[in-house]
Amino acid sequence: MDTPTPSPSSAASYPPATTLADLRHNLDAVQARIQAACQRVGRAPEEVRLLPVSKTIDEARLRLAHAAGCTFLGENKVQEAHAKWQAMADLTDLRWSVIGHLQTNKAKLVASFASEFQALDSLRLARALDRRLQEEGRSLDVFVQVNSSGEASKYGLAPEDVAAFVRELPAFSALRVRGLMTLAALSPDAARVRACFVLLRDLRDRLRQDAPDGIGMDELSMGMSGDFETAIEEGATVVRVGQAIFGARALPDSHYWPTESGA
User: Rounded CA gap, 226 and 240, in Å?
Assistant: First the structure.
């Protein structure tokens, strides 16, 4: 089941989606690929949530995406996400997921508006988020980020450190732990990419057996435009797809993932 994983240069094959019709077409195409991947492994498509990643996309196109049915958008940079949230506050059903690395001094911004945070990787950050959320009277769905590829350039906890980390999380009552998140190796080697997803699924399964009370381990956020079908075959419940929906970005991934691959 070695689904080919496109190389980084294949991003140029994603034409820009500039109209409502373009976005509807791309969303339908991605959903069809999700359904096909689920069918290959006997999963129900309803088990997989598509999270459109809207980094670098301007407000006008995001309003079109909302009209096409997108009500949950993922952003890497919290400042960009917060600005878009403010600009589109009239879209009352639109929610935001912050999926990129977060410095503790930006926790206040996330606590003020985000519905989800997918890059929790330190107790210091958990403490800062929890404190700010308590002040706001809010709670936040969070995913623990795991470095499944072992690459020094990636953020996230080492797999062997995740169990101890998760045991500390019940202390932070404003954080609703939902599961794990990872970025696979950005590689044309399909087996290497798949191994990252297998590692995360196996880790989640082990953690779920004795997770502390109140800690959810049902979700696996893994897979992006170039590899989400492989991720689904290995158990992803959330796939983060940007370029296959909105088209290739003008800015390089390094602008948004300073040391990581993009969605």
Answer: 10
State the SS3 of 198-259: HHHHHHHHHHHHCCCCCCCCCEEECCCCCCHHHHHHCCCCEEEECHHHHCCCCCCHHHHCCC
Alpha-carbon distance of 138 to 96, in angstroms, equals 14
Report residue 254's pLDDT band, with 50, 70 and 90 as the boundaries.
low
Domain spans of the chain? 8-248
d(CA 230, CA 148): 15
Please tell me the distance from the alpha carbon of residue 93 to that of residue 110, in angstroms, as a whole number: 18
The residue among 76, 43, 33, 4 whose CA lies nearest residue 257 is 76
Beta-bridged to residue 96, according to DSSP, are 73
Q: Residue 245: its pLDDT value, please?
A: 98
Question: CATH assignment of 8-248, given 2.60.40.1510, 3.90.1800.10, 3.20.20.10, 3.30.420.250?
Answer: 3.20.20.10
Which residues lie closer than 8 Å to 55 by C-beta, 6 or more apart?
Answer: 74, 75, 76, 77, 80, 242, 249, 256, 262, 263
Say what the pTM is.
0.91
Reported as a single tens digit per residue, the pLDDT across 72-117 is: 999 999 999 999 999 999 999 999 999 999 999 999 999 999 999 9
Give the per-residue pLDDT at 88.
98
Q: Is the distance from CB of 148 to CB of 261 less than 8 angstroms? A: no
pLDDT tens digits for 122-146?
999 999 999 999 999 999 999 999 9
Nearest Cα neighbor of 194 from 182, 204, 209 is 182
